[in-house]
Amino acid sequence: MDNTGIYIPSIDAKDIYLSAHYIEENPEGYNLKLKDGQYNLRKFINTLDYSLDLIELKDIYYRKFRKHDFSFRIKKHDYSVNVINLTFKYSVKEWNQMNKNTFVRLGYDYRELTFEDGIAKNSEGEIVGIKTNEKIEDPIDIPKPFVKKQVNIYDKKDKSIVKEIQTQYHKKGEPKTIKTNAELRTELYKDGFICNGIKYCRMKRSTGSARVGKCLFIREDLYESILKFSSGSLKYNQGDPIDLAAYEGYIALPSSSIIDTISIKPENILLIDDYDSIFNEDVIETHDEDGWLKTTEKNCKITNTIWDGQSLMDISLFGDYSEYGMLLLRNLMFKSCCFNCNIQQWFKDNNITDVSQLNGKTRATRIEDVKLITTPNSIKYLKFSTWDEWLDHLYSDFGVVKHDKKTHFFGGRLVQTHYQLLNTLQMSKDEVREFLQESLDFAQMLRDRPEVVRYYIKYPDIDEMSPMDKPMSSKNDVVYNLMCVNDNFTKTKYYQEFLIDLLRSYYKNLKNGHIYVNGNYSTLLGNPIEMLQQSIGKFEGKSQIGIGNIHSTRFEYNKTLLASRSPHVTIGNIWLPYNTENKLIDCYLNLTNEIVCINSIGENVLQRLSGADFDSDTVMLTDNEKLIRAAKRNYHIFKTPTSFVSSTKVKRYYTPEQQADLDIKTSVNKIGEIVNLSQELNSLLWDKMYHGATYDDIKELYYDICQLDVMSGIEIDKAKKEFIINNGKELDKLREKYDEFVREYEENEEGELVRGKKRMPHFFSHISKQKGYYNPDKKHYCKCHTSMDYLQTIINGFKIKNPYKKDWLPFVSILDNSLFRTSSINQKQINRIYSILKKYINERKNIFAIDSDSKEERNDKANKLKVDLIADIESETIGFSTLYRLLSSLEDKENSQIKNLLLEVLYLCGNDSFNKAIIQSKNEILQLEGNGSDIKLFNIGFKITKKQVNSEIDS
């Protein structure tokens, strides 16, 4: 089976409801088809990922219909209408917005209406459609909330000149709401809907989709079979009591996107007991009290489940993945990060020769069959049924979600910091400047040296130039491949424009706090030797690695490192572990540089890392001395934020109404607001300390920031757990508490103090512009004495030396023109290609002009449009002379709009004609190779060599 996903339709519940409530009978329900009977592929913007669910769904479909048409293929992509994604963003109103300027009365199909002079009427002459904000020749009285309005139309060049006065219809106020979002969700969860004559019912939602309010619906005749598969035949009748949040979260596990499957037999599995390490520590404790959060500093009893979410798996089960240190696996209500381990060697070295010597449950009869050691925390099915029932219903294969990976930066040697970390470190302006120096030097290198750009955008070697018979995946791929042909390309305007964009993007990243440091993201592996000891009954609760220590092969031993997990909310989330050698771990665990072994016995590290566990959570690790020096400054002052907010067993029943209520509560996500407020308060804290405040002066402020860290954990967990406390109300309470510190007050005309702008850290102006909530009218972005504001100031003051040159070469200068023949030009083909590109540009503009679509929806539609464009251009067979003329004409001023797009698309689609023309012009170019002394980038030495594209690429 092809392990790519399938495009499925995405429809808003409002549109489903409207189609079911047309005045004229509509037994077909919502219509996904165009007038020619073909599916409207622009609706297919969501993906049903390759997953255990998808594999099973195809099987279920074939068993039921004896057909292999679960999906259909168009232009190399698969589509299916058997599953539909529903969003719940809009309520149903008496008048509903169909596009930017068109409103239609409830009960009428927009596609069936004819508009004349801004109005559409039904057969009785009633107004049922209105176009707003456009010129009306003969205005008439229209129903509320619409009004007639005189509008001045100004000259495009001189905005002070009124060109004409138009009458337009405008919306004044909101139409009456007929069904709220919540009511729509409840109704559709209960009754389902009809689409193109097929009945659909609620299938499931993933925890990620639940946070944004989305849910999958499936054609009703496939539902029972996929539910049986996902639940392991657990049977709940309507109205049965159930831990609904947990159940909904766990049956969604097989929906997770996977890259492969591996075979593990029931008799390979050993189930051992989890172990809780219980100890006392002084912490910043948050608990709920009378429905509100309360945070204080106290000595508390901490409980760490030291193997929560992890398993150990013998290397023999890794198969093609034996080079990796971990695989994140899925199966029936099973989610576990399985670490590469020499289990059989452990048994042999400890004289374990019979399964009777094992400390746990297994169906194995021979010791050599035991190859996966896990705990109840990885098997969610055990919350609902038994070990034997789980083994009886295990899927035949386990899904591989991911494995450990190097970072994308400099061959995995560098990692990027982020603003959340930097803004929790107390650094002076000089320290920030010192920290940034390598990054600013690198920007100058990018400007001056094409070989550095070549290395940066496509590490590490020219031999890894993407094969010319395969499509590229990004614009960086395109430029990298062109740079590898000959040096003429780096003298073209296309390259210079790319370089300007690259530097602009690089600066933007720097200003976001994305600074390269030596390090990586490492997957957490907790107390692995102790887990092996537990499997044979020899674990006595003692830490083998030791408190405060870690073991990472990526860094030097006997050295302090800095660790930070995401989300990183407060100073108390910074961790400074000590990296130690551990030969016992190296003997039995097959670690990579992307795995870090940590200890959580008697150590409050899991709360320090924002409620981390071992089901593939990662930490950023670095040995950057400047960051570590800053972190040590306050390390023992600010104690660890620790959550004692217990999830609540809400009395729930297995009903559509309860499912809807749970998803409504889950879909209100506050994680962004929580992190933003924490950074505002962190900036306030550092600014106060800069001006002389002591810990006692700011400790209450610190408690509140710690509370925000706990709130972020609640927000992340609420798709699978329920909590009494309301994060929205907690946020309002904290905002009100600190309003006097962050609010400017002004005197009005009567001399009274009134609320003015809200003061925000200056670096938020940069971040908010990218995220779309920059608001200088209501917010004053002022500089604080905090690391991120220093960073912004320093980067803004940095200027690259040397201006850009003006004498660019035309793009075709990289081609060998000796093969060009005027008589071989196909002008019709050139015109057709231009027409395709211009159509794409216009349609893309239209997508981003629709205000009613979310940013995510616009991006999904635009990506889908790009996929179709690539398929269209890919199908063109272009002769060399036609291609040469096509590329030559791109220098013409009238074609500037499509120049970059055409070059990108020709490469992205892997067009043979283009690839052959490019590769014929190859020549030697400079490149960087490791382990040299010619040039240093971020303290990594390189040598500069001359090389030519590998001749094998010609074929």
What does this structure look like?
- The protein is α+β, with helices and mostly antiparallel strands.
- Among the domains are: 6-90 and 180-255, no CATH class; 100-175, no CATH class; 260-276 and 304-403, no CATH class; 668-784, no CATH class.
- It is built from 29 helices and 41 strands.
- The protein has an eight-stranded mixed sheet, with helices on one face. Strands 28, 29, 30, 31, 32, 33, 34 and 35 form an eight-stranded mixed sheet that branches.
- β40 and β41 (940-947) form a beta hairpin.
- α11 (450-457) crosses α12 (475-483).
- The longest helix is centred in the last third of the chain and has 23 residues, at 695-717.
- It is globular and about 90 Å long.
- It starts with 5 loop residues before the first strand and ends in an 8-residue tail after the last strand.
- Mean pLDDT is 89; it is low at 460-472 and 951-955.
- This is RNA dependent RNA polymerase.
